[in-house]
Amino acid sequence: MGERIEYDSVGSIGVPEDAYYGIQSLRAFRNFHITGRTLSSEFIVSLAQIKKAAAVTNYECGNIDYVLSKAIVKACDEIINGRFHGQFIVDPIQGGAGTSANMNANEVIANRACELLGGAKGSYVPVHPNDHVNMSQSTNDVFPTAGKLTALKLIPELVFKLKRLANALDGKSREFAAVVKMGRTQLQDAVPISLGQEFAAFSCAVKRDAKRLVKVTDELRTVNMGGTAVGTSVNASPEYVAGIAENLSSVAGTEVVQAENLIDCTQNLDCFAFVSGALKTCAVNLSKISNDLRLLSSGPRTGIMEIALPAVQNGSSIMPGKVNPVIPEVVTQAAFNVIGNDCTVALAAEAGQMELNAFEPVLFYKVFESIKTLTGAVSTLTDNCVCGITANRENCEAHLRESVGTVTALCPYIGYEKSAELAKQSLKTGVPVGTLALNCGILTKRELEEVLDPVAMTGCRKLDTLSKVSVCERSGI
Q1: In this predicted model, what pLDDT tens digit does every residue of 231-244 receive, in sequence order?
Q2: Cβ–Cβ contacts within 10 Å for residue 7, how many?
Q3: Is 321 exposed, middle or buried (CB count within 10 Å of its CB: 0-12, 13-18, 19+)?
Q4: What pTM was computed for the model?
Q5: What is the spatial distance between Cα 56 and Cα 64, in angstroms, rounded to a whole number?
């Protein structure tokens, strides 16, 4: 394969003759061997959408002629439709505040536009990557805007998956509504609760996360396109500055608005810290749910085993028949990754200086990774775990029967100290709390049946037939 020689302000370099990328992309490729990965397809599409919107706006403003604008738009459309993604060779973590990624897009688009107009790749005649594809732009407004567009592309799928998970949890809540068990606080027996109520609580947390993520998308719709280098719109005509946001909205198929203060929007990445915070919160909730599922399914003979998770794979290379809770385990690991990413995002957002933040590349890399990681984790949790969970009613009933937690319901009638004394006696002797209370003559059998009814204690049935005053008077309290 032959080479073509390209030149820049640093010098010259040989570029593969059939490459659509150019000298600046190749320098970046050689400089930044960091992750071993390239820009995500969604980010590449976002860059192409910005370049298309810029070409349209520049033509409308009279800054570029129809022929060049049409060729640039055509090249951008091809990239948007999935072509030439392999020509984007730069690492997502790169020095230069994203200049390498921006120039990779400029060079690929310019070379393809030249080709469409009968020119040779690498000649940059009649379409130049800086003079035409990057006209009225800077990396400093293109790159952060591409990051926002990409996040806006990725978040809806995560929200959809979270809603599916919430629906699955709601289904289990209804299925387990009549399964009463012992609730636990600090891993110790507390008071009765239904298994359905526990799953309903899981669902509520997931629904909140979905709402938060929908809300944070508003933060991402404010862009600094038109601000160019530092937000002062240098090298951009007033007409371009006024029209670029509307055209970008049309091209991207999602509404974006131009920031009221382009300097602020160029300097600061706090909106991504906010987005990452919502992703971290979602990860925390998912991990907490996963931890609960692992605890509730522990066993099968020597643990809690109030629920059974679907068996999806062998659990050991040495212990036959062992099945592990691998889906909740992987969700928790995904959560660890997202929580760590949030720390990176916070540090990157904080580290900007003066008119620009040079650490956008790693910030975007981690935000995109967090969204994709959570999307996959939520999907496997729903399909490979939650939908197949079953209740172990016998264990739930046995734990409830053996616990002294129901004594809490006696406090309003006989007081805390007397209730505590009964609990201690029950634990020491193994005699149920209700039997001890009946033997002591504290309450009648009918009263005990009502007060210590586990279903009533879950709040599923209102107790209104027993007079607390009369019971207290009878007990001499």
Answers
A1: 999 999 999 999 99
A2: 9
A3: exposed
A4: 0.91
A5: 9
